[in-house]
Amino acid sequence: MKILFVSLGCDKNLIDSEEMLGDLMKEGFEFTDDEEEAEA
Question: What is the domain partition of the chain in residue ranges?
Fold first, then answer.
């Protein structure tokens, strides 16, 4: 599944987002910057 992930807020939120992205990548998710391509 391709995910569009947007992180908003402070530096702490960015770090939390990066950790979540790493966990999702390990589970086989893909990421995109294209809203049309994203499934979630």
Answer: 2-31
